[in-house]
Amino acid sequence: MPSFDSIAFFNREVTLVARELLGARLLVDGVGGIIAETEAYHPTEPASHSHRGKTERNASMFLGPARVYVYRSYGIHWCFNFVCADASAILIRAIEPTDGIEKMIERRGLTNLRDLCSGPGKLGQALGITRPTHDGLMIDAPPFSFTPTTTPPAVVIGPRIGITKATDLPWRFGIAGSAFLSKAFRPSST
DNA sequence: GAGCTGATTGTCT
DNA sequence: GACAATCAGCTCT
């Protein structure tokens, strides 16, 4: 039994959780690493899949906090999200590989650690994420393993990328100075 | 090193 | 029928 209450952790304001996820350890079947980059999505803004209400695709976002939401992006990639309070979600954009690296190299067909999980689609492939297998599951039950950090890293904040709506919201969070980010953060102090 | 473009398929209008 | 929370490969500087 984990002493960590995942529902309480995720049942909070989505941008707060997105920031606290940085440095946490996420494994899928023993493969994964340290979360290095996240983006927050809330139903009140148009970039969120839950903005238009519940559909078959986004049903997992309405199951409650600490769930996993998986969707296909551009018809090719699987993207991995955590569900938070009020049908909000956090897209995991990048991970620093620490566990099962050989498995990730095999799945990605690459040997460069920095390219294994530095983007939502790459991450989904490296961790073997698919919608039929993982969508709607709880994050604290197998095959997942989630461990929050006890030593929060320095954080950089910026506007979300890869979207066409609500692009001005500073809801993208990353570990400052990490070599595993999907893209560099726009220069800004603090 | 930075920036642009084609690929590919499920979902929504 | 059009779009999309992306990636990889190519061109240009």
Radius of gyration, taken over Cα atoms and rounded to an integer in Å: 15 Å
Structural class call reads alpha+beta
How many strands appear in the DSSP assignment? 8
Count the domains: 1
> What's the number of helices?
6
Low-confidence stretches: none
Largest sheet: 8 strands, antiparallel
- Helical percentage: 10-25%
- Estimate the global geometry from the Cα principal axes: globular
The level-1 CATH class: Alpha Beta
- State the separation between the terminal residues, measured CA to CA: 38 Å
Percent of residues in beta strands?
25-35%
The CATH architecture is: Roll
**If you consult CATH, what is the topology?**
3-methyladenine DNA Glycosylase, Chain A
What would CATH call the homologous superfamily? Methylpurine-DNA glycosylase (MPG)
Order of helices and strands: HHEEEEEHHHHEEE
Mean pLDDT: 92
Plain-language structure description:
The chain has 190 residues and is α+β, with helices and mostly antiparallel strands. The chain has a single domain, classed as 3-methyladenine DNA Glycosylase, Chain A (Roll), CATH 3.10.300. The protein is 18% helix and 27% strand. It has six helices and eight strands, in the order H-H-E-E-E-E-E-H-H-H-H-E-E-E. It has helices at residues 6-10, 14-20, 101-108, 113-116, 120-126, 131-134; strands at residues 25-28, 31-41, 68-73, 77-83, 89-99, 144-147, 155-158, 172-175. Strand 4 (77-83) and strand 5 form a beta hairpin. It is globular. It binds a DNA duplex (13 and 13 nucleotides) through residues 39, 41, 47-49, 52, 55-57, 71-77, 79, 81, 91, 93, 119-122, 160-164, 182.
